[in-house]
Structures are given as structure tokens and as C-alpha cells.
Amino acid sequence: xxxxxxxxxxxxxxxxxxxxxxxxxxxxxxxxxxxxxxxxxxxxxxxxxxxxxxxxxxxxxxxxxxxxxxxxxxxxxxxxxxxxxxxxxxxxxxxxxxxxxxxxxxxxxxxxxxxxxxxxxxxxxxxxxxxxxxxxxxxxxxxxxxxxxxxxxxxxxxxxxxxxxxxxxxxxxxxxxxxxxxxx
Length: 184
Prior knowledge:
Blueprint: E1 4-6, E2 13-15, E3 19-21, E4 29-33, H1 34-46, H2 48-64, H3 66-79, H4 81-112, H5 114-129, E5 146-149, E6 158-161, H6 163-174
């Protein structure tokens, strides 16, 4: 069995394995059992004031130590360049077979459709920089939308369509239909 200890919160005698390790505590374990610690933590996380206080502390710490973290990241990146490269090479070798066809297909698509590829990249960049905003689907009003280019030479002139209507429009274009009216 093991040495028994009484929890300082619930008052129940429990085996020392029910307590977290703590070198300063009696028997080398904490005063409160793991269950009581977990219950208290769960209760604290339900308190919005506690969560907001923790968020504020984390935000302050992030801003205060931003330069230090960045310089450490840069130093690590520079100092471990070879090991990162070896790891990446090994990863690519291990994962080559499942992804090889996808990479090849992507490369071929980019080669066959350079204008489309460029337009997709420009839309993605414009979205991330806030120059382009997603709007609801033109046909059904859904918020899950994709950008549709009528003309790839005008990459930022897009129609926002849900995946269903985007597929319908592409299939319609494939079979010679040009107009699809707005669904009311």
C-alpha cells in the first residue's frame, strides 16, 4: 500500500500517490490531494473575474518580455540551423510517400494555371492584410464562403460564394451556363 497522509482540504486520509510531489512537504508530497487541487482549479476557471485577471497578467507578461523572447528565438533559430535542417530533411523523407502525389499535383496545377495561382495568393494576402473582407454568399447568405474569380486578370474582384454554390457555378461554367440568379 504506502504511507497514508491526510489532505489539508478534504480531511480524508489518502495514499501519498494521491498527492502531487513537493520536496518541501511532509513525505515529499503536497498538503492538498490532487483531487482537491483539481476541484479548486476548475472552480477558479469558471470565475470570469479570475479568467480576466489571468488574461491581463499574461498579456502584460507577453508585452513586457516580447523583445527578449524574440531575441532568444532568433538566437535559437541561428544556433540550431543545422539540426533543424536535418530534422526537416528526415521528416520529408519519412513523410514523402503520403504527400508526394499531393505535392506533385500542386506543382503541376501551378505550372498549368499560373494566373489562377497568382490570383489565389493575392486574395489570401489581401484578406490577411485587411484590404479585402469576406462577405456572405451572394446566393444564399451563408457565412462559410470562398472567393470566386470571374476574371483572373482582375485578382481582387471576387464574388463570395458558399462551397455549394461555388461548385454549382464552376460546373455550370464547365457545361456552358453563364448566369445563376440570386436565390431569395
